[in-house]
Every structure is written in structure tokens, then in C-alpha cells.
Amino acid sequence: MNIPIRQQIYNDAEKWIYQAGELIREQIHDNYQIDTKSNVNDLVTEVDRSTEKFFAEKIREKYPSHFIVGEEGYGDKVDSLDGTIWIIDPIDGTMNFVHQKRNFAISIGIYHNGVGEIGFIYNVMDDVLYTGIRGEGAYRNSIKLPPLSDQVNIETSIVALNSSLACENSRINEKKVQQLIKDCRGSRSYGSAALEFAYVAEGIVDAYLTMRLAPWDFAAGLILVNEVGGVTIQANGQPVNILEKNTILTTNKQIQEKLLDNYIDLK
Ligand code: IPD
Ligand code: CA
Ligand code: CA
Ligand code: CA
């Protein structure tokens, strides 16, 4: 993607993210409609939908040739990585949004011919914007993030994962996950995949492991983590498919091998 065009897209996306964040904050105490999706704990609200619609309208007006992949159905049916694609999660961490009124993010990854060009993860209530620009680095509120530490090992690492992975489950050997929780310095579960990616990029969490993420959950985070020298792969070590659901391990490279070899045993 040529640099002036990328800069223009960056500027527009950043402006729209701040506008959408303001709209979300204005509605945070409203009596908005809450529905469920695949199960009773899978929540979606009117605010998720209106936020995605806001982005879809802005993008279609300014960039009619671009494609949109979004969680809430305002996007396009996209089955090829050709062209420019905006991959949008209007609210990542809807359960946190509803129950905690914090700890959720807007996540937007912009890809051109399959290459991640720009990633945005906006922690709406903290007003912290993480950005990643291919080849330029990752930033937290415009301050450049340093490369990830080369001094991390399992014993000194903080690992984010869904606590359900440590319970009996059909996807992963829970005994190994329990061992990981014992062996690492601390485990965390933030409830927003996008923020978990941002924390890995920031180096305040050393790895994030999860069994099923959609493109809108990881599209932005993958770009950020790349830019600080981290790596994002499927939990079986294979590359991530951008347009599909994937298991995900995003991590400091120092512990990638140990995690895959000693602690991740897929069923
Ligand atoms: C969810 C959150 C959650 C993760 C789920 C996602 P949503 O996204 O990121 O932390 O465990 O897999 O679906 O539905 O709140 O956008
Ligand atoms: Ca959802
Ligand atoms: Ca999500
Ligand atoms: Ca969402």
C-alpha cells in the first residue's frame, strides 16, 4: 500500500475511532438493548451494532472500493484477501462493556492484499489508543513501544488465557494448561482478546493463549504484536488464517517454543 494513501486511511480511521469512542462513552449508562447470540453468556447490544454501523457508513462513503469484515453484520461477504479490507470489532469485550462498563476496546485491522498495514485497539474508557503500522512500529497513545524483552522465560512470564482452558474441555489438554499456570509467574484473563493482544505488544503480558478467535478479534492485535517483534500463530504452531476462526497463541518469541512444546497439547 502506498504511504500517502496509508497515512490518509490512518488519519480517517483514528478520527472515526475517537468519535465512536465518544459515542460509546455517552451511552455507557443508558438502558440499551441487550441480546444474546450463540448462548446466554454471548452478549450483544444495540451499542455494538450502532458502532459497527457508524464505521461501515464512514468507510463506504470515503472508501467505496474497500471491503469490510465486521462482527455484527454490517460488513461485506469477503472470501478473498485481495484489495483493502477493514476488519472491525466495534466492541471487543461486550461482557465487560455490559457488566463492568470498562475493559473493552474498539479493534480495527486494515489489510491490503493480505498484508496487515494498520492496527488500532482503543481502550474506550481509559482513552488509550494502541496503534501498529507495518514497518514503523507500535504505539500507545503516540508513544512508541519498545521491542519485546529478550529476557523472558516461563518462570518470569505473565500468561493471559481463558480460565476455561484449565477446566476439563474438548480442545486442549487441561492438565498441561494447569501446569503452565503453576510454572509461570502469573496468569490473567482480561475478557477482551484485543486488549490481551495490546498488552502482549506493550510487554506487560508475555503471551495470550485462546482456543477460538474470529478475524475481528485478532486482526489489529496481530499487526501490533508483529511490530514489537512478537509472534502470532495458531496453537498448533501453524500460521493464522486472517479470514477464518483460529486458535491463537500470541507471544514473546523467547517463550514461543517452550509454550508449544511443553504446555500446549491440543486434543
Ligand atoms: C470476545 C472477547 C473475549 C474472547 C472471546 C471473544 P466479543 O469478543 O474478546 O475475551 O474470549 O473469544 O469472542 O464477543 O466481546 O467481541
Ligand atoms: Ca461478540
Ligand atoms: Ca471480539
Ligand atoms: Ca464484539
UniProtKB/TrEMBL annotation:
The protein's required cofactors: Mg(2+)
SUPFAM superfamilies reported for this sequence: Carbohydrate phosphatase (SSF56655)
Keywords: Hydrolase, Magnesium, Metal-binding
Enzyme superclass (EC): hydrolase
Positions annotated to bind Mg(2+): E71, D89, I91, D92, D217
GO annotation, biological process: inositol metabolic process; phosphatidylinositol phosphate biosynthetic process; signal transduction
MF GO annotations: inositol monophosphate 1-phosphatase activity; metal ion binding
Catalytic activity: a myo-inositol phosphate + H2O = myo-inositol + phosphate
EC number: 3.1.3.25
PANTHER family the record matches: INOSITOL MONOPHOSPHATASE, INOSITOL-1-MONOPHOSPHATASE-RELATED
Name of the molecule in the record: inositol-phosphate phosphatase
Species lineage: Bacteria, Bacillati, Bacillota, Bacilli, Bacillales
